[in-house]
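As a warm-up, study this chain.
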Amino acid sequence: MALAMATAHARSFRTVIIDPGHGGHDKGGQWGMVDGEHLALDTATPLESELKKRGFRTVMTRRSDYFISLPERVRIASRYSDAIFVSVHYNYTWKQGVSGLETFYHSGQSQPLASHVHSGIMSKVRAINRGVKFARFYVIRNTRCPSILVECGFVSNANERNRMKTAHFRQSLAEGIAEGIMRFRRSG
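Now compare it with the structure written out below.
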């Protein structure tokens, strides 16, 4: 049943809600002057451009450095019946050796989207593949449309931090996410 719903939704959506994680007083994972809130926005903005080039309507939950509550992010997503939701984040852990990219989903209808997007980002950047995983993050648990949360690397890892500071790396991630969304749409 969930696979049938995901397939039907893959055919019908035309809007992508892009949710740059954190913002305002919520800096996200931080190391020195590098923080997740700015990296997320600096990845979401080229993602929006990539998706518009491919003919999608896009909605950004935030366009600058301000705070939006988790319930408000879900409310924004719920305004669109023909949408998918993609939350962009950068990870952090106190273990500085941990690195890699991972993509999270909560519902069965979201798992195919997570798989396609994760394959897309892994095809664009060389990084440890931490896989596609189930999680109970608020924004992906409470949205009704297919919803994923993409972790684009660890701010706490020196090598990844140096890469994520480059526009080229963030652009490559944006292209990978966009390609994964296209693959999800074609899978319907």
